[in-house]
Amino acid sequence: MNKFDTIIIGGGASGLLAAGVAAGKGKKVLVLEKMSRPGRKLAITGKGRCNLTNMSGIEEFLAEIKPENEFLRHALTSFGNRDLVEFFDRIGIKTKLERGNRVFPQNDSAPEVVEKLVAWCKKQGAEFITGFRVDKLVIENKIIRGVLGPDGAYFSNSVIIATGGSSYPATGSTGDGYKFAEKAGHTVSKILPALVPLETSFDTKRLAGLELKNINLKVIVEGKTYAEEFGDMTFLETGLSGPIILTQSREIVKLIDRKVPVRILLDLKPALSQEKLERRIERDFEARKNDTFRSVLNGLLPMKLIPVCISQIKIPAEKRAGQINSLEKGRLINWLKTFRMEIKGYRPFAEAIITSGGVSTREINPKTMESRLIRGLFFTGEVIDLDGPTGGYNLQIAFSTGFVAGNSQ
After folding, report:
1. What's the rounded Cα separation, in Å, for the pair 51 and 45?
2. CA–CA separation, 264 vs 286, rounded Å?
3. Do 24 and 115 belong to one domain?
4. Residue 397: closest CA among 79, 92, 105
5. Longest dimension (CA), the chain
6. pLDDT tens, position by position, for the chain (409 residues)?
7. One domain, residues 229 and 373
8. Contacts of 189 (CB under 8 A, 6+ apart)
9. Residue 61 lies in domain
10. Residue 140 neighbours by CB distance under 10 Å
């Protein structure tokens, strides 16, 4: 009664894909989900829209994956982004392509993606038990035998750990898989939040809600440009977010964790070179020489940012544009091209989109997702030490590794 061909711990993206594929091969599959229903995190991903994948070519895709991207090559070749789109079409999820090669359901409904995935798994023959917390793996002589929990035991010679990472813990991703892996003898690299808002020494409360579009961000470490990103950024009450911040947070968090000082420089006018910006400032100030400095800034900056600019470059708000000297104009131009902030920290796992770190890829067979240490133990998705930027990369990692593990049953 409690014996199965395959037990899957976790009913998220990778676990559901693995379950359906394995069950489709005629295996007796059990999915153990500790929450009241599967797919809780998947149902809120992409702000509820569910960015399913990214349609970049395989080399371009792999270039975005850290730390060991070659590990993922077989999984992407076996079940890549086009395979995923075709799969969703078969189970009734029509998709659309948006900027940045991002793929979403046509109806922008993450909950429907979960609903269709679960229905497909059950149609394939997979069984589900919700509200079951796994406490321990049963391992004998380096062979998996099953799982134990407070509500009983289930036995199998194949267990897939698809527990997710530590981000959004309210959805059930509380890092259980890392504990199971470590107890089984696996190396687990340090777990840190990734794709997470950053905290700054600059008080962002007064700018909360302000979005800066098409700006250039430089990450400065030890006086040198460490990384650079172009795109959009958002101010929060608690710090900074938006695509360019989230993407760069993958590395910034690791630097901060190592106590390395980090600051960012924002070029608010990247379309204009220093010389072109100087000419524009001269032209604007001459044309509006009788207007106040504050009113001239209205044509250069969002309203919320004007008091910050005035305060930092120390030019009186009511000073007439025609009275502002070249030194003061130079300070303004420098500020527009290098608005700087010190990064002092990062937000907690509860606000992170994914987790960086995890089970070492050196200890997992990339062609099967099976542990190289324990026979019959498999890993999928976020529990593995792999992560990508925003834009559908991380869900594709989950689905591809889930497919390979399910197909290896």
Report:
1. 7
2. 32
3. yes
4. 79
5. 87
6. 799 999 999 999 999 999 999 999 999 999 999 999 999 999 999 889 999 999 999 999 999 999 999 999 999 999 999 999 999 999 999 999 999 999 999 999 999 999 999 999 999 999 999 999 999 999 999 999 999 999 899 999 999 999 998 888 887 788 999 999 999 999 999 999 999 999 999 899 999 999 999 999 999 999 999 999 999 999 999 999 999 999 999 999 999 999 999 999 999 999 999 999 999 999 999 999 999 999 999 989 999 999 999 999 999 999 999 999 999 999 999 999 999 999 999 999 999 999 999 999 999 999 999 999 999 999 999 999 999 999 999 999 999 999 999 999 9
7. no
8. 357, 358, 360, 385
9. 4-191+352-406
10. 8
Contact by Cβ (8 Å): 49, 104: yes
Among the listed residues 3, 143, 9, 25, the one whose alpha carbon sits nearest the alpha carbon of residue 403: 25
Cβ atoms within 10 Å of 325's Cβ, excluding its own: 8
Total count of domains within the chain: 2
Q: Which of 307, 326, 345 corresponds to the end of one domain?
A: 345
Provide the residue type at 72 as one letter: L
Report which of 363, 377, 16, 347 is spatially closest to residue 177, judged by C-alpha positions: 377
- For residue 125, what are its two tokens? 């023959």
**Is residue 226 domain-shared with residue 138, that is, in the same domain?**
no
Amino acid at 302: P
Whole-angstrom distance, CA of residue 66 vs CA of residue 68: 5
Is 171 found in the same domain as 262? no
Backbone angles phi, psi at 374, to 5 degrees: -125, 120
The residues that bridge with 25 in the sheet, in sequence order, are none
Contacting residues for 64 by C-beta, under 8 A, at least 6 apart: 56, 388, 389, 393
Q: State the DSSP code for 126.
A: -
Confirm if 174 and 359 have CB atoms less than 8 A apart.
no
> Rounded distance, CA 40 to CA 48, Å?
11
CATH number at residue 136: 3.50.50.60
Query: Which residue(s) pair with 281 in the sheet?
Result: none
| CA dihedral (35, 39, 42, 47) positive or negative | negative
Distance CA(74)–CA(372), nearest Å, equals 16
**380: closest CA among 18, 130, 5?**
18
